[in-house]
Write a structure and sequence with these properties.
By secondary structure, the protein is α+β, with helices and mostly antiparallel strands. It has helices at residues 2-16, 19-89, 92-101, 139-147, 173-176, 189-194, 238-246, 284-303, 309-336, 354-385, 396-413, 427-434, 436-457, 478-495, 524-540, and strands at 110-117, 122-125, 151-152, 156-158, 163-171, 181-187, 205-210, 216-218, 251-257, 263-270, 277-283, 417-424, 460-465, 468-474, 509-516, 546-553, 559-563. The chain has four domains: 68-184, 2-Layer Sandwich (Beta-Lactamase); 189-284, PAS domain (Beta-Lactamase), CATH 3.30.450; 339-380; 385-547, 2-Layer Sandwich (Alpha-Beta Plaits). The longest helix has 71 residues, at 19-89.
């Protein structure tokens, strides 16, 4: 009986320790140490992360401060270049021409470049609505003139459209020694906030860039509502505002217990060359809570390890073999279809596929580079095709393109558009007398003179062909156009270019003037025809004079031209 009882117990034990149980026990034996080690590692990680969070974020904040320094430094470099150009140009018109063409497209944090006289009135700007604005009452303008160095203003509302901004200022006297002008730039605060993007989106973390008065200039996207607000009005930041702003140190940090009971660590960094500071605050309790959530998530993940072992193998095979092949096939297909931006993400590929991905990327990069070079060459050819090399002005093709643009704009806004057709009197005789080299020199001098007049009148000068030039004048009525025509005629006389076969013994020009308000019944060619007709009349009136011609639309939609002078 005892033997039978023992056998029965053995049978039950074998049933309990069957293959399924043994596999389950083996899985527990294999996984349990890993789980225990993982749990211990996560607990250690919790302690380390809390200790390292402040140090890590301070480093990130310092990098962000460096990036802000680079933004401000790039603005200062542009202003120094403009100040040097102004000091070297010796005149308002040339420096204004350069200013309008010098706003870099790769520096989107600069909204507008301006030049102001010593009286504070803006002489020229890349945005014409600022011209004439008086900045003499602005503290940053006064400080730049007094100190003779680069100045970055506090937070202001820009005039005339009340846009939040800061102003960067550099006096021309730093180069010339004579206080005759100041170069300014409006800085885009949105871009200064984008530079701080790596400081945003983190629980328990606040980061802002403030001016010397404590007004927030920039903040990450999730804290953008703070821009323009005083630091004292921000929860959890007001306690350290006074100490951070008044500190003489470039960098500093402190810890304190906030009013809500949270423990906070604060770092502040001065942006060199300015009074702005980047202030970063960390709520240690919230940082710790995030780590605790990660630990709980890790426990849950470890609990499912055994269940998903086989599924993990299938997923691994899919990820390590099939997906990389499909990714490379997709890239090859996109390249074949002409998408030269296609690249293989090597960090998502197993090591065995990296050499192949590198070869694909190198091939795509070479093709993309060749395409960019081709586009750049085409752009240069387009510019060359629109410039007259002799006079330095736009050629007929460039003039026609500008006329079409100004015509559409004048038609849209209901403004006037005037055209001056300018012809050198007896130019064939000039060439026959002095030779073609002197003729070319004469045309070059006339081109320079007309370029200056165009700059002063906000016009557009071009060489229409041969010895004929034109001057397109937006927002200009016929009376003003005649005045500008007289200025051009007088400017040519002032050159005193000898011309012994002319009745005046010097080079003169005849000028035809036409002006109209573009509408549906007119076309740009009508304006050219009217100016040509006026020029023809000027020739027949003895040359060296200015004649105007009117352009008028009739009810039938056709055009008629009426001689007005």
């Amino acid at each position: 009986m005892a033997r039978i009882s023992l056998n029965r117990k053995r049978a039950k034990l074998k049933q309990v320790l069957g293959i399924r149980a043994r596999l389950a026990l083996l899985a527990v034996i294999l996984v349990a140490p890993l789980m225990l080690e993982r749990i211990r590692s996560l607990e250690d990680t919790r302690t380390r992360q809390i200790a390292q969070a402040t140090v890590e974020f301070t480093t990130v904040a310092r990098h962000s401060a460096d990036a802000q320094r680079e933004v401000i430094s790039s603005v200062e470099t542009i202003l120094k270049s403009e100040a040097f150009i102004r000091a070297s140009a010796g005149g308002v018109s040339k420096s204004c021409d350069v200013l309008r063409a010098s706003l870099p497209s790769n520096l989107p944090w600069i909204r507008t470049l301006l030049i102001a006289g010593v009286d504070g009135r803006i002489q020229c700007a890349t945005n014409n609505m600022y011209v004439g604005l008086d900045l003499s009452d602005r503290p940053y303008f006064q400080q730049a003139q007094t100190s003779g160095r680069f100045v970055l203003s506090d937070f202001i509302l820009s005039r005339p459209i009340a846009t939040p901004t800061v102003m960067a200022v550099y006096p021309v006297s730093a180069f010339s020694g004579v206080s005759d002008a100041v170069v300014l730039a409006t800085v885009n605060l949105d871009w200064m906030s984008k530079v701080m993007s790596n400081l945003g989106g983190r629980a328990g973390i606040t980061a802002v860039l403030v001016d010397s008065a404590g007004t927030v200039l920039a903040a990450p996207a999730d804290q953008h509502s703070a821009v323009g607000r005083p630091l004292d009005n921000m929860p959890l930041m007001s306690a350290i505002a006074d100490r951070a702003l008044r500190s003489d140190q470039d960098e500093g940090s402190l810890s304190f217990l906030a009013a809500d009971g949270s423990r906070r660590a604060v770092s502040y960094i001065r942006i060199s060359g300015t009074n702005a500071r980047l202030i970063a605050s960390i709520d240690e309790d919230k940082v710790s809570a995030a780590v605790n959530r990660d630990i709980r998530t890790a426990y849950l993940q470890l609990a499912f390890v055994v269940v998903f072992v086989l599924l993990g193998a299938l997923i691994a095979a899919e990820k390590l073999v099939i997906k990389p092949i499909e990714m490379l096939v997709d890239m090859a297909k996109r390249l074949g279809e002409g998408d030269l931006s296609a690249r293989a993400a090597r960090n998502r590929l197993p090591a065995e596929f990296v050499p192949l991905a590198r070869a694909f990327n190198a091939m795509a990069a070479q093709l993309s580079q060749r395409e960019r070079e081709l586009i750049a060459s085409n752009d240069r050819l387009t510019v060359m095709a629109s410039i007259d090399m002799l006079s330095g002005l736009a050629n007929r093709r460039g003039f026609q393109s500008r006329l079409d643009f100004e015509w559409m704009r004048a038609q849209q806004y209901g403004s006037d558009l005037a055209l001056l057709m300018i012809d050198v009197d007896h130019f064939k005789l000039f060439n026959d007398t002095y030779g073609h080299l002197e003729g070319d020199s004469c045309l070059t001098r006339l081109g320079e003179s007309l370029s200056g007049i165009a700059a002063d009148t906000m016009g557009f000068a071009a060489r229409y062909g041969g010895e004929e030039f034109c001057l397109l004048l937006p927002n200009t009525d016929v009376n003003r156009a005649v005045e500008i025509g007289e200025l051009a005629r007088a400017a040519v006389l002032k050159l005193c270019l000898p011309h012994i076969t002319s009745a005046h013994m010097i080079v003169t020009v005849s000028i035809g003037v036409a002006a109209t308000k573009p509408n549906e019944a007119l076309r740009p060619g009508d304006l050219i025809e009217a100016a040509d007709a006026a020029l023809y009349a000027a020739k027949h009136r003895g040359r060296n004079n200015v004649v105007e011609h009117g352009v008028q639309a009739i009810e039938t939609g056709a055009t008629e031209m009426m001689m007005a002078g």
